[in-house]
């Protein structure tokens, strides 16, 4: 009996987390309550509160869980790419598209709400640091970047900060065309700065 | 009599605009009403509505007006810098610090609110385009960038998108130390990409 119950519990959590992200992206932090999320997830409010005592817990879990999932997906897609410098452009595209979907939209609502809400800020600051470190790690992996070389660590950081800025530029209008042009130029900038490890391997 | 009245009118508008930015940065869009802004500015609600019929008009004027002011200030500071490649680092610092103050915080509240509010979106989208173009123009000027060279336009755009991403990273915690390291690396990346015009002049 233990396994099926764990299974059910996982399904419930997953449904709540998906509903929380949808709800945040569509209605913002003020429109996102445990009751609204539970209803959207088809879960009773009591069950929702059993898993996540407060809405802060629930939305933080949502951002973290889906952030991890997004990163796993990125790793899987990147594994299919060839090694060497030809890798720079598709990897730049993957990274610079990272924050253009509903996940970022949801997280942005939270960040902005947290800037005027102490409770939410206390939950989000450590989460932001953890998710940020994980995104950095996967960017280093994907680019084949050698962080022992001076400046490479900062170039990888700049790539992710640029990606967040591009996410912001995509919030109110579809910025895809402009982003594609920036991505091509970014790949050229990244090539000498970070691709040495894969270049060396393929030489 | 005409001049003093225009003068008073300008003062009133300016007070409302300053109050709107403070109010947005501290309380977000939901806490920012014409009544709250008027009270903070020491202006009657009627007078506030005479200048700005809706809160959308008022906050849009605020973001636009202060955005322009920030850009004028940037131009003045940049005029004091030496020409040539030594210009890259101080200019990179000015540009990458551009979105770390209360102005960006206020604008961010608006952007995020506009993503779930059609009326606000209709006001902000053209404003965002105008302010964005102006920021691009001043960045080109400050960097001495020659946009006729391939890739330069996109590098300047990336600089401003990176600056917005860094603004986001500075929202919940003080990110100055990390931003300084990224800025130094960014100046190195910018140097060959854009500083040719000033390099040529100083050669």
Automatic annotation (TrEMBL), chains A, B:
Gene3D superfamilies: Tetracycline Repressor, domain 2 (1.10.357.10). Keywords: DNA-binding. SUPFAM superfamilies: Homeodomain-like. Residues 33-52 bind DNA. Residues 10-70 form the HTH tetR-type domain. It holds the Pfam family TetR_N. One of its GO terms (molecular function) is transcription cis-regulatory region binding. InterPro entries: Homeodomain-like_sf, HTH-type_TetR-like_transc_reg, HTH_TetR. PANTHER family: HTH-TYPE TRANSCRIPTIONAL REGULATOR PKSA, HTH-TYPE TRANSCRIPTIONAL REGULATOR RUTR. This is TetR family transcriptional regulator. It comes from Prauserella shujinwangii.
């Amino acid at each position: 009996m233990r396994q099926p119950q764990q299974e059910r519990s996982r399904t419930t959590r997953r449904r709540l987390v998906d509903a929380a992200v949808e709800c945040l992206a569509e209605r913002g932090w003020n429109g996102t309550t445990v009751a609204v999320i539970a209803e959207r997830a088809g879960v009773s409010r009591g069950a929702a509160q059993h898993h996540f005592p407060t809405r802060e817990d629930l939305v933080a879990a949502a951002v973290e869980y889906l952030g991890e999932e997004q990163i796993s997906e990125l790793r899987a897609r990147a594994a299919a790419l060839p090694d060497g410098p030809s890798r720079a452009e598709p990897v730049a595209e993957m990274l610079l598209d990272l924050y253009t979907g509903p996940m970022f939209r949801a997280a942005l609502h939270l960040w902005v709400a947290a800037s005027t809400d102490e409770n939410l800020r206390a939950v989000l600051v450590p989460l932001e640091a953890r998710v940020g470190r994980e995104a950095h790690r996967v960017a280093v992996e994907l680019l084949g970047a050698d962080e022992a070389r001076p400046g490479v660590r900062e170039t990888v950081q700049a790539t992710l900060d640029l990606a967040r800025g591009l996410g912001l530029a995509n919030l109110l209008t579809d910025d895809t065309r402009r982003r594609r042009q920036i991505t091509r130029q970014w790949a050229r900038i990244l090539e000498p700065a970070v691709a040495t490890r894969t270049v060396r391997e393929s030489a």
